[in-house]
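Much of our argument rests on the idea that a fold can be written as discrete symbols. In the encoding step, the backbone of a single protein was reduced to a row of integers, each denoting a local shape. This step matters because it turns folding into a mapping between discrete strings. For completeness, the protein is quoted in full, as a sequence line and a line of structure tokens:
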Amino acid sequence: MKAKLAVFFLNLLLAAHVAADSPPSASRYISQLDRQDWILQSDALHYLAENRVQAALPPIRKLATDSSRTPWLRGRALIALCKIEGQETPPPLLLEFSSATESIQRAAACEALELYSDAAAKNLSRRLISDTDPAVQYRAIATYAKIQKAAAWADIDQPTRSPSTDLLPLALRSLAFTGTDTALERLVALMKDPFKNQGQAGAILRLLSDIPEPKLIPVYLGMLETINQEDPVFPAILSAIAGHQNEDIVNALQNALASNRERATYTAARVITLLLQAPELGLALRKALTSAKEMETFEAGLTALGCKEMEPDKHQEFFAEFLDHTETDLRILAIRCLSHCREANLYDILSAIIDDPDKTVRYAALNALLLAPLDKAPTGKLVAYLESALASTDEPTRILGFKILSHAGNAEDFQPALTMLGDALKSTDDLRREAVAAALGSIAPNNGIAPVARSQGYITDWMVVGTFYNDKDHKAFNEELAPEKNIDFNATYPSTYVWALRGHQNKPGEKAIERDVSWEEANVDRTNGKLRMGPLLPPPGTFSLAYAVADFNCQSAQEVSLSIDGDDAFKVWFNDKKVAEQIAPYQHRQSCIASVSNIAITLKPGINRFLVKSANIGHEWWVRLRLTDADGKPIEVYRQ
């Protein structure tokens, strides 16, 4: 128990000494150094070194000088210590490690030497090049090359000519630090075969990615040319490129695009898309694509130029050149690129291909128009523009045409659309009929909704009265109230109502509120034919019922089919005879749809009348009646 308390207070004391500007997790990582798990200790050393946590110096120094620890862990501690201290000259402990019996400690000393550039570091690294252990030698070679750069060539030339596989990453690191054309040519030559081995590739990239030499960027681009994007090494190479200055990356990409090599063009385009969207590369990429022959190169190039940050408006004409390409995928990609051009008038550019024989191209063009600015649409002429789509026998094409009409059309387009699509409203194809109706409804003026609904056979013109008090058990719904006894549109009826809170009716003993209600004219305000009772009647709409009457004139007798649906319950009389009654099972805060279809009735010459008693418990409240003939085609009727 005492031991546990001692550790607890020690950790508290340690946390108190952590600098105020240290990362939030510093204390946890410092305490992690005392764990016996070398993985946790290594992780802590890396974190504390990268964040330069000064408070970690004492425990790290203790770890580095603890002979009971493994040489490898002590070496990691030395490197972390040197990073955090940030001195200009190698500390005595590093010098001690450079002469240690264990080669792994001498290698760590060489690695730590990379943090210094003074004469002492240079001389020590050069001395270690003669170490008996090759791993130490090549670590020293890399350190020496970092300090001396081009001047190190005489010392690293021979060792880097044909290094063993396990020492190759360090040899390449020394060549990269040297940075001369000769050194980089050797680096590229050495990498070709070993880079096919993914394990070796990962080690190489880890040792190269922190070297800021701009001449390495073309080397990385060359690596990318040899692999595909699904290769596990691909993101590591991109990450290595990303570690460089944007200006240097742009210059390297410019040179790659100017090389007139198709694989270089493809690679540069992918890097632009995935890493650096620099608009100044646009013209160079377009020029490189003029000599391309492969499909994947064109796809990569168009994708890059179509990126928002690449200012695609500057490349409108280039994209448009691909609209009549023989490859379908390129045509579709060009359409998508054009849809990213804010200044492009897609209605003009795509007019020739919205009825393209290839449906995938057609779909792409129509979908692009859905993204086009509304002010680009041909006002008053949109229906004529979309005629081929709206009249297409291909259902997805028609649906896209209807969506564009709904999206970009306005009242000026309504009458032309109704003229063209009127027959579709009388179709027995319900999906097409409803899609056409929805499109027309979205652009219809206020007086245009009823004609669209009426053309589909819906009863649109009504007289309504309500609300009357009902309850959850539909008590009033099952009683005969005054309006259904004698319909008099001039009459006024007393009614009662209660306010329902959270679905509950009035409390026991609470009196209902009284008022008078009278008949009012009403019309459906949706092309789907629903007579929405809630907006038409005084509130509340919960625990209520109302009546609706529709009178219409017929020239002659006719056998028709009546379909009724509504939320929540209805009774319907036709010419004083009850023809339907339905109550939907109640579901809290959900639609409760009652429906009856294909009721055979006979319209008589002269005036015919529907009387509807509609009840609602909660949620939505509507009722709908539709007339069709024996073939399912709508019967259109008008108010007397």
